Amino acid sequence: MIKILDEDTIQKIAAGEVVERPSSVVKELIENSIDAGAKKITVSFSRGGKNYISVTDDGEGMAEEDAKLSFNSHTTSKIESIDDLKNFNTLGFRGEALSSIARVSIMEIHTKTEEDDAIYLRIRGGNLEEIMPKPRERGTTIIIRNLFFNVPARRKFLKSDYIEGDKIKKTIINLAIVYPEISFSLFHDQTLTIHFEKNSPQDRIKEIFGEEITKEMVYIDFQKNGINLNGYVSMPEYMKEKGRIEYISINRRPVRNYLIRSAIRNGYGIPIKDRSPSFVLNLSLNRETVDVNVHPRKEEVRFSDENLIYGAIFDTIRKRLGIGTGMFIKETGYEWEMEPTAFWQLHNSYILAQTKSGVLIIDQHAAHERILYEKIMRGKPSSQKLLFPLIITLSPNEYEIFKKVQSTLTKFGFEIEEFGERTVRIISISSFIKDLSEYEFKEILYEIKDAKPFSDVAKILSCRGAIKQSDKLTPEEMNTLIDKLFATENPYFCPHGRPIMIKWSLEELARRFGR
In Å, how far from its chain's centre is CA 400? Predict the structure, then answer.
């Protein structure tokens, strides 16, 4: 039987969509403080925010009548009609947050404007219990006690105090990155754990993540077609498996967005699996081209022209990193001392190259692999005839694989004919492979049997044909290899996504030697 829910149940369900956990309460309250013009925001919490949260600001405050309306549903000072959703410039706009929080907690509001007297209100489960004058300076303090006290099922599913507290800290950092002109303080159990004075965007990032991390990133900037993009991304050699930084804001609103993350990662031009770039990206758009009203907590957005946004970010990343242009080397201090004597080979496997700012260590196999891969992808592979054809007898399974991949081998320059029962004669091989033995041919069969795209086979053959670890190179050969590497579209990663080079700056070397 279908039943109509009572109003109290409806309101608590609605509150649950906005107020997911203590950190979402902190986020909503800080956003209100920012919208009120605060320059200083202080947050306190205990028991992971489950028992106590306090947010104090020095913003414009509320008059008594506004304060009494503020915790009611769909009351807001930010918009008046549906048309305003197209062009509002505040973080909050729906009039849901404060009322949703008030319904599932014991709330205290203490506020004062420049002109009006201070007022104190106490609300329990959405119902006003107390209102009285109470002196204070201009601004607002909102205290939340016993979150979800009247929705025990929701409170039961909160994580540990540590996890919930950590989410609050991340929320503060998210907003502090986007609003460096605001001072933020965070107290956990009355102990100061975070304090950021107002700062420049660059210094705020350095303050949060440390100088070492910021040295691993480069600044990007793009302005065109109504898109204003700026921020920091990892230099290619500093991409990480763990501990990477990922922050996106759109019109100064911290968000999650798969499209933007994909554009950034794909801009590096490699199949990123085990490692990813760090980034702090700020995107400003015409407000009519982005919809922030698609998520209950305003954490996701939708664009009217996704291709335009993706292309702008993708192209900016590639241009700044010099992928396909070679410009990145000069811009980030990789300028070469090009005399052959500036190169050394370590254990016949790695090339040490002196730069004006330090040293590069280059994996010679990965470097040659990248060169061959791009050469294969640019044009049809040619053939080289063997001096003596190679005759190989295959097992039943190997012969079955050969029949499956024969046409693929032909595309890559192999000339192979059948030469009796399960026997083949190899007349020519791909020009990218130096030589071929019976064992190597059988290995290639197994490697390419499940490779479908042309690029997958190109990766296999470029690996096969590349200079090997332990191959000794002359200074001239090293010089040629490096020249060819930096003429490729992406000299920083092999086709499989592994790094080709590691950079050590003179500063890092000095620090390691205790200077």
Answer: 44
Q: Provide φ and ψ at 439, rounded to 5°.
A: -65, -45
What is the identity of the amino acid at 196? F
Q: How far apart, in Å, are the Cα atoms of 21 and each of 24, 100, 171, 243, 478? A: 5, 12, 12, 24, 57
- Single-letter amino acid code for the residue at 401: I
Name the β-bridge partners of 352.
Answer: 344, 361
Strands 246-250 and 279-285: parallel
Based on the number of CB atoms within 10 Å of its own CB, is 341 exposed (0-12), middle (13-18) or buried (19 or more)?
exposed
The CA distance from 279 to 208, in Å, is 13
Task: Supply the pTM of this predicted model.
Answer: 0.73
Strand residues in 273-395 grouped as ranges (E): 279-285, 290-291, 302-303, 343-346, 350-355, 358-363, 383-393
**431 residue type, one letter:** S
Fill in the amino acid letter for 377: M
Q: Write the DSSP assignment of 132-180 as a string of letters.
A: EE----SEEEEEEESTTTT-HHHHHT---HHHHHHHHHHHHHHHHHH-T
Give the pLDDT of residue 289.
87
What is the per-residue pLDDT for 511? 83
What distance in Å separates the CA atoms of residue 469 and residue 349, rounded to the nearest whole number?
A: 5
The residue among 306, 202, 284, 292 whose CA lies nearest residue 256 is: 292
Joined tokens for residue 423: 């026997």
* Residues across the chain: 515
- 72-78 long-range Cβ contacts below 8 angstroms, 24+ apart: 72/99, 73/11, 73/99, 74/99, 75/99, 78/35
Low-confidence ranges of the chain (pLDDT < 50): 5, 12-13, 16, 78-82, 84-85, 88, 92-94, 330-340
Starting at the earlier edge strand, list the strands of the sheet with 139-145. Answer: 127-133, 119-124, 106-112, 139-145, 52-57, 40-46, 183-188, 191-196
Q: Give the DSSP H/E element, type plus range, for residue 415.
A: strand 415-418
| 189 touches 70 (CB < 8 A) | no
End-to-end CA distance of the chain: 78
SS3 8: helix
Question: Residues 173, 178, 182, CA angle at the centre, nearest 5°?
Answer: 80
Model pLDDT for residues 143-195, shown as the tens digit of each residue: 999 999 999 988 999 999 999 999 999 999 999 999 999 999 999 999 999 99
List the structure tokens of 281: 């990206």
Sorted by sequence, the CB contacts under 8 Å of residue 277 that are 6+ apart come out as: 233, 234, 236, 239, 244, 264, 265, 268
